[in-house]
Write a structure and sequence with these properties.
Strand order of the largest sheet: 6-1-9-10
Number of helices: 1
Order of helices and strands: HEEEEEEEEEEEE
Strand content: over 45%
Structural class: mainly beta
Oligomer: single chain
Radius of gyration: 29 Å
Distance between the termini: 68 Å
Number of strands: 12
Length: about 140
């Protein structure tokens, strides 16, 4: 009886392996073609005097975060000029970053994202006595 069980087990294993296809399926790598675009990230403030933000954004070319303070510059009339981050021939699907003001001014901080000169995202926040103004510019580019 023991021999019959062993022979049956071997026959079952042989039957199962003979039914398994030996052909391997080739993996096809799907790559999505991304058309390079000109991207601009523009930060503006309504603060009438010295204003500085801490800015961070991911640079996919360098595979690193650019991080640090950026000071707004004011023209001769005291109007703030925008901080512009230009990313020409941007070939990635995602834009990631944020900026915040490290004080409790109530003036606005605004971010705009332009792709090929078309506004695709805009966010404006106001600080309070208790909360710093912070804007995020995480965006997925649609083809």
């Amino acid at each position: 009886m023991k021999t019959l069980i062993q022979i049956s087990s071997i026959l079952i294993i042989l039957f199962i392996t003979s039914c398994t296809p030996n052909e391997t399926i080739e993996e096809i790598e799907v790559t999505e073609e991304i058309t390079p675009k000109n991207v601009e990230i523009i930060l503006t403030t309504t603060q009438p005097n010295f204003d500085e933000v801490v800015l961070s954004y991911y640079d996919f070319d360098d595979e690193s975060w650019n991080y640090g303070p950026r000071q707004f510059v004011y023209d001769a009339n005291g109007n703030p000029e925008p901080i512009i981050i230009s990313l020409p021939d941007y070939k990635y699907k995602t834009i990631e970053g944020n900026a915040y003001r490290k004080n409790n001014w109530t003036s606005s901080l605004k971010v705009q994202i332009f792709i090929d000169d078309i506004l695709v995202k805009e966010d404006e926040v106001f600080g309070t006595n208790l909360v710093y103004a912070q804007v995020f510019f995480d965006y997925t580019i649609e083809e």
